[in-house]
Amino acid sequence: MRAPPSPPGPDRHRALAALDGAIALLVVILIAQMWVLGASLESYLAGHRDSALVGAITSAVLFAGSFGLFLFIRRLDRPAR
Amino acid sequence: MTTPLWRDEVSIRSADERYVSRRQLGKFLVLTSLGMLAGNTWLLIKAGLRGAAARLAPARIAAPGEPARGAVALFTYPEPEDRCLLVRTPDGQLHAFSQKCTHLSCAVVYSAARDRLECPCHDGVFSVRTGAVLAGPPPRPLPRIAVEERADGVYAIGVEDGDDGDPSDDGDRG
Question: Which terminus has fewer CB within 10 Å in chain A: N or C?
Answer without folding.
Answer: N
